Every structure is written in C-alpha cells, then in structure tokens.
Amino acid sequence: MQPSRGLKLQSKLQVSSxxxxxxxxxxxxxTCASADGSTCTLPDAAANQQLLLGASDLAAASFKLETDYxxxxxxxxxxxxxxxxxxxxxRFARSPLRAALAGPSGDVPATKNFTFDASKSSDPDNxxxxxxxxxxxxxxxxxxDVTYTGVRPKQSSWMVDASQLSAxxxxxxxTVTVSGTAAGDTRQATASLTITPxxxxxxxxxxxxxxxxxxxxxxxxxxxxxxxxxxxxxxLRLDPDFRSASxxxxxxxxxQLQEGVNAQGTPSTTLTVHPTAFPTAGAVILQAVMRMPxxxxxxxxxVPLNNPPNCPQAPCFFTDINSTVFPxxxxxxAASGWSDADGDVLTYEFGQVSGGTSx
Length: 359
Fold this sequence. Notes:
The protein is built from two helices and 21 strands. The protein is mainly β and 359 residues long. The strands form eight sheets. The protein has a four-stranded mixed beta sheet with strand order 6-11-10-8, with no helix packed on it. The protein has a three-stranded antiparallel beta sheet with strand order 2-4-5, with no helix packed on it. A hairpin with a 7-residue loop joins strand 10 (172-180) and strand 11 (188-198).
C-alpha cells in the first residue's frame, strides 16, 4: 500500500466470543513490528477496534518504504488477563510521482519567449524531496537551429524562444519527465503542454484545472488523472493584453459547450464539465476560443481520466469455505482478474453488507 493514501485496518470480533457472560467492556491495542527490526510507533488512536492512520500519521511514525510491517491487534475484556490476537502484514510501496507542468497551451505568438514550469511536481510520500526534471519537445526537429537548447532558469523550468521553432502553424508538444533521485527509486511521471506558433498577435491565455486549496491557502496541485466521477472545473486566465476578448468553450471536435455560459449569456472564463459529458475512456480535451477584432486565438487543455479498474472475466470475487460448523463458520474471500487500463497499482478493501448496511 502507499503511505500517501493512509492506512485503514479493521477488525471484527466473533459473536460467540463476546456473548457469553453478559455485556463486557472489550479493550483493544494495536502494535506493530518491522521486518528489519526498526522502530515502529503508533499514535494514541491505536487503542480502538479499527486502526486509521492518515498520511501525516505515517510520515510522523517514519515508516520505511519497501519494508514489511506486522500489525497486531490484541483484544481482551476489562479485568481479565485473557487476550486474543490477530495479525496482518503490510508493505509500504512508493506512491507514484505527480508531474505538473504550467505554461502556455494552444496558440501563441511566434515571436515571444515562453516558460514551462514543473515546480508543482511532487513526491506524495515526501513533498519536500528533490526531483529530477528532463524536458523534451516533439515532433523533432523542434528548433530550426539544431544547437538551440533554450534556457533553464531553474532545474524545474524551461524557457523557449518561439521564433526558434521550426515552423509556423505547426503544433509542438513540450513534455517534462519527473524522476526520483533516491537510490533505487525508478519512479517517473510525465506532463505535457502543446502550443502552436501563429503569426501576428493572437489572443492568448492559459487553462488550468481547479482542485481546491492546500493547507497554506495556495491552489492545490491536481492529480495527474481526473476522477471521472467528479466534476471537472477549468479556469481560463486571459493574458493582460486580451482581457476584453470574448470566449467560447469548445470540445476537441469544435462543438460548443454550454456549461461555461453565465446567467447574462456572456461566455465566462470558467467551465464546469459534469461526469455525464466525459468520454468512457482516455482524456477530456477542452479548448477556449478567444476572439478579438480581426484575430482569434485558442487555448487548450488535455485532462487524462483515471479509468476505473475492470474485471473482464468472471469470477472476479470468489469464496472458499473453511468450516460449515456453527458458530465457527468461516470462509476466505478473494478478488481475482482485476486490472487497471492506466497501469496503476490496485489496492483492495473488503467489507460486508448486512441488511443493506455496509461494514
């Protein structure tokens, strides 16, 4: 499991073990031990029937990645020395890196410099850790001067002179590949933006996704892939010289979208796309057409969707009965055949439904 998602361990007492002798107080205590003998400390919340540890709890407890930890629950009645234990083993795996790239997208003047900034990229397991940034451009050759490499104001940014691009009216995709720097860390993540250099001075702006605010009050970084069960909110920021431009939102096929129209009927700079409008797979591609007298420009954004896991062939869940003798009726449930089209690592959470209530 990934520390950035937190940890939830839940226990269930056998009914036959708590019904004898009337109502009694049951006490719980979770402990943990690492396979390599390193310190494993749990917070006060470990004295409950279920163990809930958020990402910050796991970080404070200094759990090691790629290490097995045995979590043990000890339960017993108040005033009794008799206890019962159950254990499970958890291995903390590295979370996927989050690549984020800010900069222009869509039409841009062919005579200006532009900066692509990946500084919002992060490692969910350790947001302060340093990352490696590699920038690229396609299709090749991107630049008319094969020796031109642009300027790197910071390791996380790349400034490019659009006049150096090989052709006018040709789309170019700029990509950052973010990599981990720790020994043995092979994780990578990518993010891309596409621009098209245009002659003259077309209206320009930048479309970004809005994913709320972080603890410091700044805009929170969005996940690389959008949850297809949630609304997608896109914001167009017009560049200062073009704030009087009219705006029309269209999809990848050039069809007008209605969600971005305000009550007065004037196209707005925000757009909400509801899940019912998403494609079944792939990505949501949005464009904002900005119009000034005598000239138009476009800004665009490509938002990949985090497609749900699927199980193409049954049985996707099966049970194996261990005992049919009441009250020791036990069985093992297992999920099988599930995969994720995006290549993400799947995690499984099991529960039960009794009388319409989930547990």
